[in-house]
Design goal:
Elements lengths: L1 E6 L8 H15 L3 E7 L5 E2 L2 E6 L2 E3 L2 E6 L4 H10 L3 E5 L4 H11 L4 E5 L3 H4 L9 H12 L4 E4 L2 H9 L5 E3 L16 H7 L8 E5 L12 H6 L4 E5 L5 H7 L5 E5 L3 H10 L2 E4 L8 H8 L4 E4 L15 E3 L6 H11 L1 H15 L4 H20 L5
Parallel strand pairs: 1-2, 1-7, 2-4, 7-8, 8-9, 9-10, 11-12, 11-14, 12-13, 14-15, 15-16
Antiparallel strand pairs: 3-4, 5-6
Helix pairs in contact: 1-14, 7-10, 11-13
Length: about 375
């Protein structure tokens, strides 16, 4: 099968969408498919045997790590040369609209997938009044596809409720060989805690952006005076967060990758995740694979991953002290914490990227066969 994959973000950027895509491309290639990735220019020409077609773009003013790459005629020529059996558009916004256009123009079956809960992001940037308009734009784009994939049951229901048709669930995946409890490290704990490895260590990994609501962790630190917080990642909200957390035992670590990242997960006492806008929350699954107990908002796609009291704690986002209470409970009971660690690892072991990609390939085959059926007048 020949698959043209359009995405608004790809390597070398680091985020949950890129993580899913890089494993998906790798496993699609391993399964004998040929993939061509259309993405904003990032310097790559090839990844795991797949051709990467970079399109020049301009940085988003409020998020320079993201590029606005507009489709151009050369993209159409590249698709015609590649001759895909199917086009898959990830989060169609700018470049992805080109994928929709060429799918229609060249009569190529189209799949779309929804990974970023953009309508809910708007309120964090003072643009909440635009949410109904954005849903209409999303509906207009996604309803061109023969299949719209979501990464959690909550997002399937959300898209259904806003008139987006032909939705289904694309199962989660995690690299349980990389993320594992055995990578716990005293040296990493010392690094994350800035030389206080004996202190309770709270960890956040992900984008430092407004919609992640990282600022809401500060009252937790204030309620647990000896705790330390490590924020791993970067993003447009970093300077504001540095001001917000000034005077607290918070360490802005920056990006970590590979075994360093996996060791950070394994070496912390708790992974704390206040975001209410997650379509899934892949970092939670990575933390669980590493045996790090998670404390997360009971919102979005997160309940698909975390079962409260069994493999982590969920907190009610409408209750002012709920995140603090959950963190105090976790840190106070070592026996319960160890039970959660084991249950979290067991849950993560159920979800492999190979299985998720086999499911995706089955979806592709169904869409291609459906498109090939004679049309009924």
């Amino acid at each position: 099968m020949r698959i043209a994959l359009f995405t608004e973000t790809f390597l070398p950027k680091i985020d949950g969408i890129v993580t899913r895509l890089k494993y998906t491309v790798d496993h699609l290639q391993r399964q004998g498919n040929q993939v061509m990735v259309f993405c904003p220019e990032g310097g790559l020409r090839e990844y795991c045997g797949a051709q990467v077609y970079g399109v020049k773009g301009s940085p988003l003013p409020w998020y320079p790590e993201l590029q606005m790459a507009f489709p151009r005629p050369s993209v159409g020529r590249a698709i015609e040369l590649f001759k895909p059996d199917l086009i898959h558009v990830v989060n169609p916004a700018i470049l992805g609209l080109g994928g929709i256009y060429y799918a229609k123009k060249l009569d190529i079956p189209l799949v779309a997938s929804y990974h970023t809960h953009l309508p809910k992001y708007l309120e964090h940037y003072g643009l909440g009044m635009l949410e109904p308009l954005l849903w209409e734009l999303l509906k207009a784009g996604h309803n061109n596809a023969l299949l719209n994939l979501c990464t959690s049951t909550a997002m399937v229901q959300e898209l259904d409720s806003h008139g987006i048709e032909r939705t289904d669930l694309w199962q989660r995946g995690v690299d349980t060989e990389l993320f594992r409890p055995q990578l716990v490290s005293g040296a990493m704990r010392d690094r994350l805690s800035q030389g206080h490895p004996e202190a309770p260590l709270l960890l956040y990994i992900g984008r430092l952006s407004a919609e992640k609501e990282i600022d809401r962790i500060k009252p937790v630190l204030e309620a647990i005076p000896h705790a330390r917080l490590a924020l791993v990642g970067n993003g447009p909200h970093r300077e504001e967060l540095e001001v917000h957390f000034a005077g607290t035992p918070t360490h802005f670590v920056g990006y970590l990758q590979g075994q360093d990242l996996a060791s950070a997960y394994a070496s912390a006492d708790a992974f704390i995740f206040p975001s209410r806008t997650e379509t899934l929350g892949l970092v939670l699954l990575e933390a669980m694979a590493a045996g790090c107990p998670v404390i997360a908002a009971n919102a979005g796609g997160i309940p698909d991953i975390v079962t409260d009291g069994e493999n982590g704690f969920l907190f009610d986002t409408t209750q002012e002290h709920a995140m603090t209470d959950a963190t105090q409970r976790l840190l106070a009971n070592q026996i319960e914490r160890e039970t959660l660690r084991k249950a979290a690892r067991a849950e993560a072991e159920r979800w492999s990227w190979a299985s998720a990609t086999r499911q995706l390939q089955n979806y592709y085959e169904q869409v291609i066969n459906q498109d090939a059926m004679p049309k009924v007048a």
